[in-house]
Predict the 3D structure of the following.
Amino acid sequence: MSSTWVSETDARVCLVTGGSRGIGAAVVRRLAAQGSLVFLNYCRSREAAEQVREEVRRSGRGRVETIEADVSDPEAVRQMFQVAGSATGRLDVLVHGAAPPLVPRRLAKCDWRCDILPHLEVACAGFLHCIQAARPLLGTGSRVVVLLTDALFHTPPVQMGPYLAAKGALWGLVRAAAKELLPQGIFVNAVSPGMTRTELLRHYPDRALEIIAQDHPLGRLAEPDEVAAAVVLLAGCGSRYTTGANLVVNGGAEF
Ligand SMILES: NC(=O)c1ccc[n+]([C@@H]2O[C@H](COP(=O)([O-])OP(=O)(O)OC[C@H]3O[C@@H](n4cnc5c(N)ncnc54)[C@H](OP(=O)(O)O)[C@@H]3O)[C@@H](O)[C@H]2O)c1
């Protein structure tokens, strides 16, 4: 199957995992605003997903269809892409942003099955299931963008071991996918945000987030839409010579 879109004004077919909230929802809004048909995947937040769909409907630009699926379940993911594929038979953009909430925990207190495996299941198994099920729909010019974290590449906050383990392994999968899919003209890239104001951080005390924001050169955390802008950039037809790359979007936190 060949992807046929040639400009940002063409209607594209997109699927965003973890699209019900935070950064994923902001990506859905931006892709829809470009006139795309966006399949919004969610796991538990049906109401939030429907809200995004309704918002886009009212904007009169683009279209959103919601699909419930736990990305760690290969059969659910297969069915999700079957639904998405039945609409147009192709997928121009796949964004993998699904992630379980971050619960701060020192490695000394971590249990492999309870604390680390759930992150690996959603980040890594979720990506693998999506890439496998989406493969027949992806073609020349299709873009895959995966959300990592800047904590992999710069000093990480404390107590993020399980999350970092999963994102580190996911970065390996992204690079492998970029290599394997390049001959088919499918580009796979990552975006690594700094701390961003979303529900992912709900288990972090407000005071801790305030201190992190105060220490940041810009004096604040990122907003979801600021990260979404970078995702959409790599998902766009302007990124014609970029694959296997990682775009850090942390407002210059290390400067
Ligand atoms: N916020 C940050 O500071 C930050 C920093 C760096 C990187 N990131 C990355 O950016 C991405 C988006 O994060 P966010 O902050 O926007 O998170 P968020 O607001 O907590 O949203 C997480 C999304 O993932 C979905 N999800 C969770 N488990 C799922 C599963 N098993 N199957 C399908 N969907 C599932 C949730 O859907 P339901 O609610 O329906 O379950 C929700 O839509 C993540 O990959 C995160 O690691 C975030």
In short: The pocket of NAP is lined by residues 17-18, 20-24, 41-45, 70-72, 97-101, 122, 147, 149, 193, 195-196, 198-201, 224 (CB under 6 Å).
